[in-house]
Amino acid sequence: MSTIIESLKWRYATKIFDINRKLTDNQVNTLKHSISLTASSLGLQPYKIIVVSDHKIKKSLFPHSYNQLQITTASHLFVFCAIEKIDDSYTQEFIKLMSKIQNKSMEDLHGYKSMINNFINNSDDGAKLLWASKQTYIAIGNLLTTCALEEIDACPMEGFDAEKYSEILSLKEKGLKVLALVATGFRSKDDKYGIMPKVRKVYSDLFVEM
Ligand SMILES: Cc1cc2nc3c(=O)[nH]c(=O)nc-3n(C[C@H](O)[C@H](O)[C@H](O)COP(=O)(O)O)c2cc1C
Question: What mean pLDDT is predicted for residues 170-190?
Fold first, then answer.
């Protein structure tokens, strides 16, 4: 049985995927599930993920991604976006969902709702976007680890033109700001990066024991 460390050693930022291998619906669902189960501040999940499998869309994103081959060879691109408008009505929807799932009255949740609104109303748009971005990267980390455990290859990517992505994926209309993406699929045998040793700091440079 493989250990998590073996899985994390197996993974690498894949540069070329095998265009003949696609993720199954089950695999895509497992990846979505891992994103959905990610911890987030106050439980608010202030992000949305566009899942692109359409080759035409991938082709149109390619020139705006420094021509990185991950974009056109990946099976699925998970495009991570922060939700731009986090306000009282966002809180209201969240509290409604919580009330339904946990079978609590809206009155019971009033204190929690006030706490969230207090946090939201004391942060400006820039602070909220930074906060939402931090939450988003936790989901990205979870996705990468899940991919490794499931033997699905992946590459986290920030090398793209956010404006162009926003245009092509109609993100402004959706109230979203693109942050990063994770290309997923299965490594191509032409990708030399998989066999390169990992470059990592020695523990004494990475950790401080106290
Ligand atoms: C936020 C983030 C953005 C990245 N952007 C890119 C990218 O645009 N293109 C790419 O090939 N790799 C990208 N990488 C992959 C890193 O270069 C890679 O994770 C790092 O060199 C360590 O190698 P490893 O993941 O193979 O162990 C990115 C990684 C992270 C975490």
Answer: 98
